[in-house]
Amino acid sequence: MTVNKLFTYRNRVVTSEDVNFLAGIIADNPKESRRALSIRVCRDWNWIQANGVLKDGVCRGLMLKLHREGYIKLPPRKQPFTGGRQSKQKIKKTELDQTPITSTVKKLQPIEIRQVRRTKLDKLFNSLIEQYHYLGYTQPVGEHLKYIVFAAERPIACFVFSSAPYSILHRDRFIGWSSEMLGKNRHLLAYNSRFLILPWVKVPHLASHLLAKCARGISDDWQALYRHPVFWLETFVDTERFKGTCYRAANWIFLGNTAGRGKYNKTQKQLTSIKAMYGFPLVKNFRQQLCQD
Predict the structure, then answer these.
(1) What is the mean pLDDT of each run of 10 residues along the chain (293 residues)?
(2) Most CB atoms within 10 A, among 25, 34, 233, 243?
(3) 249 contact partners, CB below 8 Å, separation of at least 6
(4) Where do the domains of the chain lie, and which CATH numbers do they carry?
(5) In angstroms, what CA-CA distances link 14 with 43, 55, 62, 182?
């Protein structure tokens, strides 16, 4: 039987044989949900993350792509699609004490950073990001941690770190790894996709202090939840809104600016705002850790 390569998805070459296999799985299990089918495929393909968890999200993404392009026919959704964004109706607005906090970092101590994913504070985190971050709340991609910062039991800030994007020219050049090493070790990176200081908190140098404090503990937190460390943090800063001062003050490294063309734009025109990319190594030998087999 001739095997035709159709395209590459998340570093996996998808073939006509794969399509036939998926079609057979769907036909043999007509009453199963899309998620149940995806779990079957992950187990058959041994599609497993470094921490032993099935790559269910990636597999469902592939199956949805094949469904939309007419290669396979998935069963109807059992829940409405939200576009990857948690429904605003599910995120309840949180009423907080908004008395202005105007102090210094020293006087604000003790400051506590709590990892709140899979805790009772998870919904509070989602609500704060949805209400007060200019991008709102979006479900983080892949592995992720959520943090709420407290001072005297009052929330003052939020972070979220998630799985890092795939190939990024500035970062990959700086690390100096091959595409093969990127594919194997990308899980050792973490992407700071949201950083919020609540609008009534006006404390000089607080942002850089929190970035430094969070960086000291995030690898241990990642190890506790996902059974592997992280050695590198990265983020993008919208240059039309921010100067990236707090990242520079926390010793994050400026790696370069994006072209503003967006992820899927095939033209040479700028369609989105320019983003400045910053990176922060968590260990001195980060290149050795990231480039080893």
Answers:
(1) 74 87 92 91 86 82 89 82 53 90 95 95 96 92 93 96 91 93 92 97 97 97 94 96 95 91 52 88 96 84
(2) 233
(3) 205, 207, 208
(4) 5-68 (no CATH), 88-291 (3.40.630.30)
(5) 17, 16, 9, 19
